[in-house]
Structures are given as structure tokens and as C-alpha cells.
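User: Can you model how magnesium ion sits in this protein?
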Amino acid sequence: MSVRRRTLLKVIVLGDSGVGKTSLMNQYVHKKFSQQYKATIGADFVTKELQIDDRLVTLQIWDTAGQERFQSLGVAFYRGADCCILVYDVNVLKSFDALDNWHEEFLKQANPPDPKKFPFMLVGNKVDVDGGNSRVVSEKKAKEWCASKGDIPYFETSAKEDYNVDPAFLCIAKAALANE
Ligand code: GTP
Ligand code: MG
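Assistant: Here's the modeled complex, given as C-alpha cells:
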């Protein structure tokens, strides 16, 4: 019998209010989606176990509040993060323009030893809306942003239709493991 190592990875999900951070997490962990918007207050985590090669990995996924008045997270919250998922809504330009701030703020708070190597991921959510006709941020533009931040991986998702959600979380988990 092979010896399995268990690893806990702290994943932090950031992005503007309403982009679908909670929905992505609920879809990934509980396979559920709700149309109803309920703002996240502060932060909370869920866990998900997965196997990657010979490793048992527990993802501790921290869902945070996009609304400023509900952000009460201190430096301690970000410390020890193994990776960070930045989420925007492909139909809302403002949520894309805010990415620089979220990225910068994360690095400032988490203060990882090697910021250039820290595993980030960008997720463009809600690609299902209006059959893609209402999107305002192109894949090309998003990928350019990723390239400018040191080639961070990019996934387009729909939490509603469970499109590309599992692959996105698997990719960030692998990147975090590789960075250990
Ligand atoms: P805060 O907690 O305020 O930071 O927001 P959030 O980023 O957690 O957003 P949330 O997951 O609560 O989703 C906001 C709204 O968008 C809800 O009404 C969801 O049902 C909806 N939504 C989330 N993801 C999708 C998606 O992929 N497609 C569609 N059509 N709607 C989505
Ligand atoms: Mg939320």
C-alpha cells in the first residue's frame, strides 16, 4: 500500500461584489446554484478533498466579501494563503478593471516570500449570460492581463451551468502544490 501524504491548501477567493465568488464555491463543493443574491459578510470557508497523484489534498476555500462595507479581514486572514483566485464578471467592465487592486491588495496583505512565483489564477465568470452576447471583456483582453502579471492561468466559467468550475479549482490546487 502506498503511503499517502495529506496536504492542506488555503485558497483565497477575491473579486468585486456580485461576480459570483460564492456561487463558484457552492457549485464546486455542493453542486448547487442559486439565482438569489445574498451578499457574503466577512469571510467563511468550505473544504473539499481531492486526490492529486499520490496526494490527498484538502482545499480550504475562503470565500470573501466583495462589498467594501462587509470587508473586515485583517492581515492574519491572508497569511498562510497557498493560492489566490481572482474573479471578475465577463459582463461587467468595472469588475475587470478592479483586478489590479485586488491583486495588489492581496500581495500587500499576504506578503508572500516570492510574490512573482505566488500562484494566482484569474476566473472570468458568468459566460452563460445572454448566450455570451452581453460580455464586455474579451478572452484576449483577459489573457493579456494575465500575461502582464506573470502568466497566471485563466479560466472562463459559469457557476450557473457548472461550466469549467472543476478544472479551474483543480488547476489552482496543482499550481499551489507545485509551489510548495
Ligand atoms: P459578494 O458576496 O457580494 O462578494 O458577491 P459574490 O461574488 O459572492 O457573488 P454571488 O456568488 O453571490 O453571485 C451574485 C449573483 O450572480 C447571484 O444572483 C448569482 O445567482 C449570480 N451568478 C453567479 N454566478 C453566475 C453565473 O455563472 N451565471 C449567471 N447567469 N449568474 C451567476
Ligand atoms: Mg459572496
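A couple of observations from the model: Residues 17-23, 34-37, 39-40, 65-67, 125-126, 128-129, 158-160 surround guanosine-5'-triphosphate (ligand 1) (CB under 6 Å). The first strand starts at residue 5 and ends at 14.
User: Helpful, thanks.
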